[in-house]
UniProtKB/TrEMBL annotation:
This is GPN-loop GTPase 3. Pfam families: ATP_bind_1. GO terms for molecular function: GTP binding; GTPase activity. Keywords: GTP-binding, Hydrolase, Nucleotide-binding. Belongs to the GPN-loop GTPase family. Small GTPase required for proper nuclear import of RNA polymerase II and III (RNAPII and RNAPIII). May act at an RNAP assembly step prior to nuclear import. Gene3D superfamilies: P-loop containing nucleotide triphosphate hydrolases. Binds to RNA polymerase II (RNAPII). It comes from Acer yangbiense.
Amino acid sequence: MGYAQLVIGPAGSGKSTYCSSLYQHCETVGRSIHIVNLDPAAENFDYPVAMDIRELISLEDVMEELGLGPNGGLLYCMEHLEANLDDWLTEELDNYLDDDYLVFDCPGQIELFSHVPVLRNFVEHLKSKNFNVCVVYLLDSQFITDVTKFISGCMASLSAMIQLELPHVNLLSKMDLVTNKREIEKFLNPESRVLLSELNQRMAPQFAKLNKSLSELVDEYSMVSFIPLDLRKKSSIRYVLGQIDNCIQFGEDADVKVKDFDPEDGDE
Ligand SMILES: Nc1nc2c(ncn2[C@@H]2O[C@H](COP(=O)(O)OP(=O)(O)OP(=O)(O)O)[C@@H](O)[C@H]2O)c(=O)[nH]1
Ligand SMILES: [Mg+2]
């Protein structure tokens, strides 16, 4: 059995930074983890790249040879990956053993997890290779100070949940930039009543019905809750990793230490 995190979320939400912090954390605690680059447009890495989509296809070549723009080019690259699951990915995965833990750093274009099937097929392939997979969805905490942006982040996360049908952990990234932690707290386990009243305050009266439906939708999928991620704090990284490990049943036999997240925790 292998273990995998699929790290997704909007552009710039902090996916690659999370991957690199996770790598450093695991290195410090003596745990083995391999980070895979799935972004054909990525250029600089703060982590050792264990597998790299750019060895399969280069975005630059695609844009040049097919005359595509950056986003069309990216979708082409991902479809190429999809077409090569049985050979390229299978060969690459052969380098990893039972019990190996892979983290896939994905591109930020949200169409990849909202309506094209490539990630879903990618995940099916991982499952067929005996991997337990969990989605880690990052949303930038800077966005959710505004309830309308929070709702849009929730909808994107929901569409990934529905598309991918995997265990799913939502993270609020960049908590170090949040000055008013109280303001954020109501969004961690959002209550439909609170969302509704905030939406109604924020938007013109003719949206009241839509606001009600949206807040109920978030409520019905009660799995939309967020864990704050503060990369400065070891306790935060440890807690997040513990939650994800639980989701993919990693370390059920081993002694995995999990500490409760305490928002008032000092820096470690
Ligand atoms: N303060 C702060 N900045 C962060 C954090 N995480 C990421 N950033 C910054 O946010 C920007 C985007 O971070 P990335 O990790 O590249 O985001 P990404 O989701 O991988 O972006 P794409 O791959 O382009 O979609 C960079 O300037 C990071 O330095 C964080 O925890 N705190
Ligand atoms: Mg990135």
